[in-house]
Amino acid sequence: MFDQLFGNYLVDTKRITAEQFAEVLAVQSTVRVKLGLIAVAEKLMTMEQADEVNRLQAVMDKRFGDIAVGKGYLTEEQISAMLKKQGNIYMVFVQTLVDNNVLTLEEIEGALVDYLQDMELASADKAVLMSGNIDDIINLFLPKADEVYARVCGVAIRTIFRLIDSTARVGKAFWCGEYSTDRLAMQEMDGDMQSAIGFAGQGSCLLAIANPYAMEEFAEVDLDALDAVGELINNINGMFSSSLAKEGVETDMIPPAFYDHPVKISGKRLCVFPIFIKNDRLDFIVSIDDKLNVDKV
Amino acid sequence: MANVLIVDDSRTSRKILRTILERAGHTVVGEASNGEEGVRAFQEHKPEVVTMDVTMPVIDGVEALKMIKALRPESKVIMVTAAGKDSKVTECIKAGADEFVTKPYEDEAIINAIAKII
């Protein structure tokens, strides 16, 4: 994910053009091979096993390697060896920038220092960003000291990667008590834990989720498009609820609610987690142990 | 191949499921967007298989399942859920659910579930 985060930062700060970024990503995709293909090529898995794991990945909140190990197809040691072969995605990105004479290594280093400063990240976080571990990278952008919020945000972004867009990127999450938006789809859960999650967006931004999920081209964010967003939310809540159930926390999902008009959400403590899909910004909203009010503006 | 009734409050979910079923050669005889409509559509269309979402407004999937099983105990109902809550699964099994499928839909899981019960 850091190639997307940093690449977009380089474009935003006018260090490279959007066209150069697109070209670098295109070159990068030709040199980076999927884990499943490596496993098949190395004869560690059959094609059928790799297909099965890919299918399971679409419905489980787990990584390819974790599922393959769980099914007994691969060992942890084999996964580590394969990840080394696959190469660090950030290093591949840097190499491609340099090889294509887009930026020098010194310019990249300088931009990286500025990026950390602008995102209010510590220099120690650089290692996490460069590691390529999505879960660890996401944690840098999530609210600190609140494990439940971080967990549900993690499930949301991983589900978006799997079902909507693998090039999605995140912004720094923040807390608020009131939040206004043009359009909103949200779903509450009650039971041992009361929670609400939703996606909000200005203008037509929510179509970045609705169109790929429903495999339709909605003209606007109407109730049908919001229904598609609601289904994605339902899947996120389903995975979150299942993980809670394993810990003995029982929750019930309430049917999603849709708002095809501007609204203001208010509560004691809302977490807003910005997610960018291509050029659209969506906000993932989370509230735990609180009753939210949603009022028409 | 089976005649199937889809009961789900999400239009998107119904559309995705219809596509999967028709691609596999099944016939979708009707759709309903809540449990109450689902029971009515069941009496009207007399499907061989019902796919029933668990979380729905008006009457939820578990109540609708009980009503369908009371009307015709031999009817085949596949429960569809995004969550793996154990007590809900137990409740559905007690009420006579024939199979379970989780969301997001996986073509093979749905087709296999139907093949198992017809």
How would you describe what is shown here?
The complex is a heterodimer of chains A (297) and B (118). Chain A is α+β, with helices and mostly antiparallel strands and 297 residues long. Chain A folds into two domains: 2-133, no CATH class; 138-296, CheC-like (Chemotaxis protein chec, 3-Layer(aba) Sandwich), CATH 3.40.1550.10. Chain A is built from 13 helices and nine strands. Chain A is globular and about 55 Å long. Chain B is α/β, with parallel strands linked by helices and 118 residues long. Chain B has a single domain (3-108), classed as 3-Layer(aba) Sandwich (Rossmann fold). Chain B has helices spanning 11-23, 35-45, 61-71, 86-94, 107-117, and strands at residues 3-7, 27-32, 49-53, 76-81, 99-102. In chain B, β3 (49-53), α3 (61-71) and β4 (76-81) form a beta-alpha-beta unit. The longest helix of chain B has 13 residues, at 11-23. The interface between A and B is medium-sized, with 27 and 24 residues.
What's the layout of helices and strands?
The complex is a heterodimer of chains A (297) and B (118).
Chain A: H1 2-12, H2 18-31, H3 35-41, H4 47-59, H5 64-70, H6 76-86, H7 89-99, H8 105-118, H9 125-131, H10 134-141, H11 147-163, E1 169-170, E2 174-181, E3 183-191, E4 195-201, H12 207-214, H13 223-246, E5 251-253, E6 257-259, E7 263-277, E8 280-288, E9 293-296
Helix pairs in contact in A: 2-7, 3-4, 11-13, 12-13
Chain B: E1 3-7, H1 11-23, E2 27-32, H2 35-45, E3 49-53, H3 61-71, E4 76-81, H4 86-94, E5 99-102, H5 107-117
Parallel strand pairs in B: 1-2, 1-3, 3-4, 4-5
Structure summary:
With about 300 residues, chain A is an alpha+beta fold.
CATH topology of the largest domain in chain A: Chemotaxis protein chec
CATH top level class name of chain B: Alpha Beta
Which consecutive residue ranges of chain B, at least 5 long each, have pLDDT under 50? none
Number of helices of chain B: 5
Main pleated sheet of chain B: 5 strands, parallel
